[in-house]
């Protein structure tokens, strides 16, 4: 067997990884037979055999989601010897479940399509979406390096040249794969391929228990792999990229008890582990009560119905078949409007045109979420809403698109196409816990800050476990941009720190 099989073969599709993530890391002490079976399985899937674990590395990355793999690639390209520890049985994390795309302003793909955009506009709209509470230094770095991140992905064979729009944005700056599909699986597969090509080891079922320091400088971790005895591994820097806490009922109950019974779109591993590790070292933790609920979530399995569906022209109606909100408003406002309805649910209504432009819908259809009618009247009968109301809602919407003026709810974006191409479709949705804006306080070098706002030497953080960037409410498409932009920065800065030692 070759030491490195193509990791891309194991990449799950964007949303099918939900099933993959349902497995839990081995927590009980394994027998020798069980351990060898798990080790063999890991090797077959392209991950690193636990027997190959070394006593030290230049950089340890905790978490194999988008931010972690991006950081590892940058560290390796800077000439270092990085390793990735992932507590789940597969890489990808929440990145695999990302749907709509990656926001960036002034990208070459925008320019090629005649879309005029600026980082200043991106900054102001993100600040407005976050209700002015965003960390402004982080936000400035974020928007100014967004187009560069799109280029970096393209240079590594991950092309995002299909553009759409999300709520709170004024122009098409959400970058997707060429075919318009969900970004998650595509991005994870591309990053895994790059990790494999660089022979960067990924150990799965690898649970980091502690981060160690020596005279105030980070110098390694304690990690338990495949449920065996935990080992201390040395490193000159540690990058934590373990995600947020949207799947932790305990953390939600502590900081947002009103949300503890909501369904969650998060993978099972998104339980705030990295935040706890950093806090134990004296890292500053902020904004833990800031949790985003996403307005369009399937309630049975917690599957996110991506914002790109609305971005390509879908509307929302209530149980009476009436529109009730500007569908392209920010997520917090759309969620609040749905929760104000009697049954706290709504229907996404769209036609074949939307379905052809937002190809992630095919996954939703295979799961049985999509209801269909040859006409709007047929669809109304299928979903049991008043026919006259739904027909009127669609007709009024089409008039608004044609006149470019939505007099009912003042929607101004994603109005390029009428809903007039049979067949017609509906997906029932309601809000669910989606993203945690709170977490670790960092500076623009991704260095963790202690309670005196001083960097903890050798410790870097990127991704959803960072607090402050998104303020009170995250804009759709900004999370993927976040993990790539700050994942790159963490890898680069950790490499510079190691070389300086």
Automatic annotation (TrEMBL):
Its cofactor is FAD. It comes from the Bacteria. The keyword Metal-binding does not apply. Residues 24-44 have a biased composition (Low complexity). Residues 24-49 are annotated as: Disordered. Residues 58-480 form the FAD-dependent oxidoreductase 2 FAD-binding domain. GO terms for molecular function: FMN binding; steroid dehydrogenase activity, acting on the CH-CH group of donors. Keywords: FAD, Flavoprotein, Oxidoreductase, Signal. It holds the Pfam family FAD_binding_2. Residues 1-19 form the signal peptide. PANTHER family: FAD-DEPENDENT OXIDOREDUCTASE 2 FAD BINDING DOMAIN-CONTAINING PROTEIN, FUMARATE REDUCTASE. Belongs to the FAD-dependent oxidoreductase 2 family. FRD/SDH subfamily. This is Fumarate reductase flavoprotein subunit.
């Amino acid at each position: 067997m070759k030491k490195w099989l193509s990791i891309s073969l194991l990449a799950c599709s964007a949303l099918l990884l939900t099933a993959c993530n349902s497995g839990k890391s081995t927590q009980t002490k394994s027998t020798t037979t069980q351990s060898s079976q798990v080790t063999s399985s890991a090797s077959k899937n392209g991950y690193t055999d636990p027997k190959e674990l070394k006593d030290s590395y230049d950089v340890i990355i905790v978490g194999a989601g988008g931010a972690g793999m991006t950081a590892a690639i940058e560290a390796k390209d800077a000439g270092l010897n990085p390793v990735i520890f992932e507590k789940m049985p597969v890489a990808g994390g929440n990145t695999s479940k990302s749907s709509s795309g990656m926001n960036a302003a002034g990208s070459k793909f925008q320019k090629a399509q005649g879309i005029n955009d600026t980082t200043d506009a991106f900054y102001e709209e993100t600040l407005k979406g976050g209700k002015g509470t965003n960390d402004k230094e982080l936000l400035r770095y974020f928007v100014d390096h967004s187009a560069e991140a799109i280029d970096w992905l393209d240079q590594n064979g991950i092309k995002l040249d299909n553009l759409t729009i999300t709520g709170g944005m004024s122009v098409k700056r959400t970058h997707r794969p060429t075919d318009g599909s969900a970004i998650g699986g595509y991005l994870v597969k591309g990053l895994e391929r790059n990790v494999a090509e660089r022979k960067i080891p990924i150990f799965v079922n690898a649970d980091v228990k502690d981060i160690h320091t020596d005279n105030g400088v980070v110098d390694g971790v304690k990690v338990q792999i495949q449920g065996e005895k935990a080992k201390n591994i040395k490193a000159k820097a540690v990058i934590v990229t373990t995600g947020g806490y949207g799947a932790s009922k305990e953390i939600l109950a502590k900081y947002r008890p009103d949300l503890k019974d909501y369904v969650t779109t998060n993978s099972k591993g998104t339980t705030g582990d990295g935040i706890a590790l950093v806090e134990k070292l004296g890292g500053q933790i902020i904004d833990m009560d800031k949790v985003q609920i996403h307005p369009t979530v399937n309630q049975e399995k917690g599957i996110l119905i991506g914002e790109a569906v609305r971005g390509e022209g879908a509307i929302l109606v209530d149980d009476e078949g009436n529109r009730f909100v500007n569908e392209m408003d920010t997520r917090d406002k759309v969620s609040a409007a749905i929760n104000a309805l009697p049954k706290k649910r709504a229907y996404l209504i769209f036609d074949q045109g939307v379905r052809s432009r937002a190809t992630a819908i095919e996954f939703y259809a295979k799961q049985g979420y999509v209801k269909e009618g040859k006409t709007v009247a047929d669809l109304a009968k299928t979903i049991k809403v008043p026919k006259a109301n739904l027909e009127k809602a669609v007709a009024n919407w089409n008039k608004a698109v044609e006149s470019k003026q939505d007099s009912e709810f003042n929607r101004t974006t994603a109005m390029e196409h009428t809903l007039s191409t049979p067949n017609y479709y509906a997906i029932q949705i309601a809000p669910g816990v989606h993203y945690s804006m709170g977490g670790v306080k960092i500076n623009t070098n991704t260095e963790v800050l202690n309670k005196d706002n001083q960097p903890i030497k050798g410790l870097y953080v990127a991704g959803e476990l960072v607090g402050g960037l998104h303020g009170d409410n995250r804009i759709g498409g900004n999370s993927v941009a976040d993990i790539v932009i700050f994942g790159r920065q963490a890898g680069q800065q950790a490499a510079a720190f190691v070389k300086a030692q």
